[in-house]
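Quick one: structure tokens for this chain, please?
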Amino acid sequence: FSHDQLQMIADFVSERGGGLLMLGGHRSFAEGGWAGTTVGDALPVTLDASFTGDTSFFATVSVTPTAAGIAHPALRLVADAKASAERWKTMPSPSTTNHIRGLKPGATALLVANGDRIRDQVVLAHHRFGRGIALAFAVQDSWVWQMDAEQTPEDQTHETFWRQTLRWLVSDVPDRIGVTLTPDRAAPGEAVRITAQLNDERFTKVNDARMTATVTSPAGEVSTVALPWSVEADGEYIATFQAPLAGLYEVSVSADRVGKPTIESRPAFAEVAPSTSEYFESGMRPSLLRRIAAETGGRYYTASLLGNMAEDIAYTGRGLVAQEEKDLWDMPVILLAILLLLAAEWGYRRYRGLA
């Protein structure tokens, strides 16, 4: 492949949202010279360029699902997870010719291999790369799971593995219209934002379509919302709608272009319910606590300073109220004022002849 072709493969995954699967063999991974290429960058495993062209490595291995692999839909050979894990233990031993040093950050190992020359080497891993998924399968002869002499012709394990793996690899490939609702969980009466991404047949972003969103409320009422081009980004159309009722709102978007057939998106859903945001992100926020302490005359404590809290409370004067009771004759000024008022009132009554 030329440099441009390699870049196109990587772009197909990261921008188009496609799936990339690299199979094992002497022409794959580091041995095949993929280290340092854009395709190598897309893979979930690290490649060592020092193994380029190496054809000396070969190992017959037994493969075992990891904890993530046992729960993964692609590796579920039978319906029950426990029975599927047991089935993997009886699978024929394939071989590998590739050195896989480790996983990239964020990647997940699904199968590991053990043999005479390797121990717990990753042979099946995946990760998100941009909008798509990249999968590395460092086994060169998975066909032995079907062709081994101990396998019966009726055994569907090999077909099941590949059918489920390929279906999962392309399950999240974006459609020509992608719809995102923000937030996906809103409070009653809150506005929900609809963001639609539109691509043409070649998956080039277009700005000349008439976009319409059909919103179905929990009560079954249907309304339409026009989505104008946002101007800020190619192919992006944005609008909002109000969600007064609690329940699930369904939103689908259609696009009309001159001389082109109408296309529709998959339904997107937004749940409307009382907010539960107070139950999330409950971790300590030191900057906020310091500001509250500074503005209210309090103190900010960390775990290492908690031992001082009892002593600080005993000696601080902030927030304490003391009450003291005194007899009236212990305050001569107030007593004299009361006597003067009584004398003035008696004198006024004598002057008016009321006493």
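The first strand starts at residue 19 and ends at 23.
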